[in-house]
What we know:
mainly alpha
Amino acid sequence: MEAIExxxxxxxxxxxxxxxxxxxxxxxKLGRHILTQKHxxxxxxxxxxxxxxxxxxxxxxxxxxxxxxSKLVRIREQLAVERxxxxxxxxQLAIALLRIEDLERRAAQADRxxxxxxxx
Length: 120
């Protein structure tokens, strides 16, 4: 309770004074998991005492997470397309390099033939 009061009155001793559960845990010298799993009543009490503008807006957070999730899905889909394109380009490049090597080999053979014919 003292840690809650210190944070709400702007007199933190052990933290930067941010109004969140992580900072409350620091201020109370507890592991954050204690407030998020074991003593959720203290976490809830802290959130109730926060000014309305500082309270977490779960609906807004859920909507934001859903938007982020769908963005992530689109990004992953685009990544899969880009990887397929990269594989295709790598294959095309390998074929082009083989063709160049073959043309260089044929040109060298033709040059040797011309060189031999010039000597005759």
